Amino acid sequence: MEDGNSIIYGLEHQTRSLSPQYAESEAIRFLIGTQSLKPNSNQVHVVELEEDTGALHTKVFKHDIGEIWHLRCSPHDAANLVTTHNTYDPNTLQCTMGVSIFKLPTLQVIPKDLDELSSLQGRNAEDLELLVTIKPEKAEEEIRCAEWHPTDAGRLGVVYESSVRVHDVSSGAAVCSMKSDGRTRLKLTAGKWNPHQGHTQFAVLQDMHIKCFDTRTDCSKPSWSIDNAHRQLVRDLDFNPNRQFHVASAGDDAALNIWDYRNGKEPIFNRTDHSHWVWTVRYNSYHEQLLLTGSSDGRGLLYAAASICRDPDDDSEKTGKILEDGVLQSYEQHEDSVYCSEWSTVEPWTFASLSYDARLVISRVPRPFKYKLLL
């Protein structure tokens, strides 16, 4: 795969969920969940990039439990994944959301020889092993997403429309719950574990606000918050992997904001390069100044936010080893809303974006920017 050239993978059904796999090997893999209204038609696609040749290899698994709204691979076990899904019951004519943990029957994607390649090409979608399903207390309650705890393989944070609950992975039982302020009717839209602060904080998005709760208590008062983080609905957030007080957010005001949440009155970095809602933002785990966004304008953007990632004694600006803030590259191979953008967990320069038109685009950071960071 050459720098500057993207690889496109198309699916049959519409899509809005994507996750990199935390592979035990050096394999570059992404998992995609489909969102089809047809019964027993949804799937999980495992896509592996063969870096030397640029070829894509895939395996497809059945997800008959329903359409997939959110998907996350486990950082603890490469074979495990969790999906947030919506299931239609023809008997009651109603939809019910749930969270299910599955196990992949195999981690192998690229065939070892030609005989195995022939057998894989003629194989239908395989079954996933269902480990546990978590259902809401009320059938009509919506579930936004489920996030693995960063260090405890036995804990899963689940964002409901009005609360956050930490569930036991083995039994599915809730071990603690944090409810949003009962005085407001504003619903939660997403959430994520804080990888810092002892891995006990869980941040949620509520309308235009960001609130972070301590999961060691059932208190409804947040540990910290950023009120009016965006002028319209906040869609996504991501924590800086290196700077414990920095968090990036994206919203319906077409903005990318980066905050120091110790003083959340004004963002320390702000860009409005998209022309519609921004659905996703992701930090690069290896190079904190690189970020990805995806928007309903059909574009994925690669950003640099180097000016807020320098330490006081950093002389990179004097030596010219710093990227200029702003958009480094625009990726416009999509024809619909870009709901997800994710970095590879094993290769720092490779990333993928996914749009609703069932199109996965795998790209690399252009070589000039890569060398400027390294040399």
TrEMBL record:
Q: Name the PROSITE patterns on file.
A: WD_REPEATS_2 (PS50082), WD_REPEATS_REGION (PS50294)
Annotated EIPR1-like beta-propeller domain ranges read: 5-298
Query: What domain of life does the UniProt record list for this protein's source?
Result: Eukaryota
The protein's matches in SMART domains, at most eight in alphabetical order, are given as: WD40
Q: Which GO terms describe its biological process?
A: protein ubiquitination
Instruction: Return the WD repeat spans.
Output: 227-269
Keywords, alphabetical: Repeat, WD repeat
Indicate the family of this protein: Belongs to the WD repeat EIPR1 family.
Task: Supply the name of the protein.
Answer: EARP and GARP complex-interacting protein 1
Q: Which organism is it from?
A: Bombyx mandarina
Native organism taxonomy: Eukaryota, Metazoa, Ecdysozoa, Arthropoda, Hexapoda
Gene behind the chain: LOC114247857
